[in-house]
Design brief:
The protein is 27% helix and 31% strand. It folds into two domains: 7-24 and 142-176 and 201-374, 4-Layer Sandwich (Penicillin V Acylase, Chain A); 26-139. The chain has 380 residues and is an alpha+beta fold.
Length: 380
């Protein structure tokens, strides 16, 4: 999520291997290191997997108990970061106070189940509820790249959904990374590529083969709607089709300016999305649009600036040759920026994902190992 204008494009890409590109490997099943009721935390070679199941309060409490140390440390890191202030519209602002004001505006639009989950997280971790609340609306104050390709754009028609998150590596979020597999009572199970203490989602896939990735734009201060991360989570928990997720995003009051890629592995289809509080637009694969100067059949991509120019060049070099590795390689630098916090490739129809997080020293995720996961069993 980055400040600035995001250009919505419809292209499909092939990225050649480049220096410092991250290797790709499966993440072998690891060791369960902690349990809390039905929930557990598993440490694998590459990443931690947090498995949650139950009512909203139980999900939050399990999360808080199993990641208490991470959440406490992250709060301290963010307190230091917030104290320094941030540059927004050429004015230094008090981030923590701004987030308090944002939460007050956003709270009426947050589903009650997520408020219960925040209370559970606070109780389980020992972190004050107000801190949990403002942590979970942080993306509303700071506003990456994403693509979906299938059909003629890929080797065998498989749908690939790539998502690059360029965001706040200087705050050390990557040191508290965790992949969450959640089974909320009464809703779709889902995978959330996330961080300790974060209940919403910006990068996820559900058990019904729907995946969503978000890219931020402008519109800071337009907070009379459902916070973006909780809106994405609603899409994961409630949608069983591309039409479902489009309906949820259309009918729910929205905030700020955001862009998304929605992908549906059931029918190998996708949409680019441009959303502000007043209007939402859906861009079909290959659809001509003033913001889509290089539209290509069977593909959608969101990016901006010079990265777009590079993506177009790569696209023309490799149409019809995309497989898993080629799709991952399209996220290599400099398509991913120096602030690349995580990069993910979803294959929704098979419930597969490859995930890379930034290094402790801020090394971009695209330069590090992509670990592969088959979530079909955990998401049943």
């Amino acid at each position: 999520m980055r400040k600035g204008i995001v250009v919505l494009l419809s292209v499909f890409l092939l990225v050649p291997l480049v220096a410092f590109a991250g290797p790709i490997k499966d993440d072998p099943k690891g060791q369960i290191v902690a349990r809390e009721g039905k929930a557990y935390l598993e440490q694998r070679e590459g990443n931690r997997i947090l498995y949650l199941e139950g009512t909203p309060y139980e999900l939050g409490y399990q999360h808080g108990k199993l990641l208490k140390e991470d959440i406490t440390k992250l709060v301290g890191t963010l307190d230091t970061f917030w104290a320094k202030g941030a540059q927004e519209s050429d004015q230094v602002i008090d981030l923590k106070e701004a987030l308090r004001k944002a939460y007050a505006r956003l709270a009426p639009f947050i589903p009650e189940r997520y408020k219960q989950e925040m209370q559970g997280l606070a109780d389980g971790s020992g972190v004050p509820l107000e801190t949990v609340q403002i942590m979970n609306v942080l993306p509303e104050l700071f506003h990456c790249s994403g693509f979906a390709l299938f059909g003629k754009a890929t080797k065998d028609g498989t749908l690939y959904h790539g998502r690059i998150l360029d965001y706040m590596t200087n705050a050390g979020l990557q040191n508290h990374a965790v992949i969450i597999v959640a089974k909320p009572a009464g809703y779709n199970g889902f995978v959330n590529v996330s961080f300790a203490g974060s209940l919403g989602s910006v990068t996820g896939m559900n058990a019904r083969r729907i995946s969503i990735g978000e890219m931020g734009g402008r519109g800071v201060g337009k907070w009379d709607g459902c916070p973006m991360t909780f809106l994405v989570r609603r899409g994961l928990e409630e949608a069983a089709s591309l039409d479902d997720v489009m309906k949820i995003f259309t009918e729910t009051p929205r905030t700020c300016e955001y862009y998304y890629v929605f992908a549906d592995g059931n029918k190998r289809d996708a949409r680019g999305v441009a959303a502000v509080p007043e209007k939402i637009e859906f861009i079909a694969p290959g659809q001509a649009d003033p913001r889509l100067p290089e539209a290509v059949p069977d593909a959608v991509l969101l990016s901006a600036g010079d990265r777009y120019t590079l993506l177009v060049e790569r696209t023309r070099a490799g149409h019809g040759k995309i497989g898993v590795e080629e799709a991952i390689r399209l996220m290599d630098r400099p398509v991913a920026m120096q602030s690349n916090l995580h990069s993910v490739l979803f294959v929704p129809e098979k419930l597969l994902a490859w995930v890379a997080y930034a290094g402790p020293d801020g090394e971009p995720a695209a330069n590090r190992t992509y670990y592969g996961y088959d979530f079909s069993e955990l998401l049943k």
